[in-house]
Amino acid sequence: AGQHNTRMVEIGPDDMMYISIGSTCNECNEPNPENATILRGSLDGKSRSIFASGLRDTVAWGWQPQTGELWGVDNGMDSLGDNLPPEELNHIEKGKRYGWPFLFGDNQLNPHIDPPGGLQKTELQKTNVPMTLGYKAHAAPMQMSFYNASQFPAEYQGDAFVSMRGSWNSKPPAGYEVVRVHFKNGQPVSMEPFVTGFITPQGEYGRLVGNAVAADGSLLFTDDRNGVIYRVSYVGDGGDHARPEAIPAESMLHQARTGAKSDVASSLPGIETSATLSVSSTAFGPGGVIPNIYSSYDQNASPPVRWTAGPQGTRSYAILLEDPDAKTTPLPVVHWVVWNIPANVTALREGLESMDRLEDPMGLRQGVNTAAGSVGYKGPHPPEGDPAHHYHLEVFALDQRLNLPAGASREDLVKAMRGHVLARGELIGLFKRPERPVKP
Questions:
Q1: What's the maximum distance between 2 C-alpha atoms anywhere in the chain?
Q2: I need a surface site. Which of 6, 128, 212, 321 has the fewest CB within 10 A?
Q3: Based on the number of CB atoms within 10 Å of its own CB, is 25 exposed (0-12), middle (13-18) or buried (19 or more)?
């Protein structure tokens, strides 16, 4: 697991499991797209996908009790000085990117590292989400609990408490405290110290980690330097004695429902054309079985694909791989989003890298699939017991190159292609879960 080996797990108001996966490094191009993310999975463990990415190590996170929206505080990078980068409070939403390792704070550029494939950090600035609020650099946020209880005064209702473990490499030291994030009408307006006293000019006297709101409405937080659990309680008038309400699930459910809700792309209005492309693969024929190595149960390698050249005026090609047979919603499940394949290229090799931009072939762009929420190809992964699914590998000849942002979706691609498709073709393959999959 590398540098950040903890895994934070919460059950959301939508009865789905959310898992925070830290990065393996301070700043690097992660080989596994699930690193530096928050994942969303079913409680039976049969499915999971990336909910949000570009989060170096968001240990502190939770759902605001009035809105049901997900908020988290991310641990910033080291080696940018004592005052940079700020610890970031982020509004975490489905499909959004939050900058790491190329951007930080208000989408400032990290001078130490560049994206692969020739992608520019300035392009990522246009689509990555800047922080909502910032806090002292290197304070090291560990856990966050929203206050949804009746002991503290009413003005604390809906606020959050964050345990700051403390810095190891900044002068003066930062952190070593519990921070209150004040929310007003469901939105954060400030971050301020709430419990202090664990650091003095003579040294630090505690490393704070976990916190939780107890059943009686008091706040508990841990100090693993001294092996102590502290309790913060309120005595006096002014407490809000209304019963805490259940956190609303609508925000998370609404985000889960976003995405494609249609036929496969080649059947949609605005994509029609009488001209056809012949699409083929050396891996499988029309109606044939897709070999296991191209599935998520095995090597997850993109298959080799060929197509006949488009008509005169073709400026680029685009590809989609879609599964309309899945029982989940929304449909179809999208496994591959590709655009700006050069007009002189009519074949792709096996096993393309999962990057926003490639230099072989030069300038090819890849978007986010819905099968895993990651950039690039994600192989078939039908569940146990399902009959074979049909996978539509669609190729489109276009009369222009497309100006789509990094991380574009299938919907973005379909919208941009409308009115520009000169020819289209597809190859349909079948895949059923193997009896003994290599991967779960």
A1: 80
A2: 6
A3: middle
Q: Peptide bond before 173: cis, by omega within 30 degrees of 0? A: no
Dihedrals φ, ψ of 263, to 5°?
-70, 175
Are 1 and 24 contacting, i.e. CB atoms less than 8 angstroms apart? yes
Amino acid (one-letter) located at 83 = N
Task: Give the CA distances from residue 328 to residues 42, 84, 332, 334, 420, in Å, rounded to whole numbers and listed in that order.
Answer: 11, 43, 9, 12, 31
DSSP string, 264-311: -GGGSTT---S-B--EE-SS--TTPBPPGGGSTTTT-PPPPEEEPPPP
| pLDDT tens-digit map of 318-327 | 999 999 998 8
- d(CA 262, CA 156) in angstroms, rounded, equals 44
DSSP string, 24-81: SSSS---SSTTTTEEEEE-TTSS-EEEEEE--S---EEEE-TTT--EEEEEPPPSSS-
Report the distance separating Cα 94 and Cα 401, nearest Å: 28
Residues belonging to the chain = 440
Angle at 375 between CA 369 and CA 381, to 5 degrees: 45
Whole-angstrom distance, CA of residue 36 vs CA of residue 59? 11
Give the DSSP H or E segment for 411. Answer: helix 410-417
Q: How far apart are CA 161 and CA 369, in angstroms?
A: 35
What does the CA dihedral 169, 171, 176, 182 come to, rounded to 10 degrees? -110
Instruction: In whole angstroms, give the CA distance from residue 302 to residue 321.
Output: 10
d(CA 410, CA 85): 33
Report which of residues 358 and 242 the model is more confident about.
358
| Residue type at position 345 | V
Per DSSP, 410 falls in state H
Model pTM score: 0.93
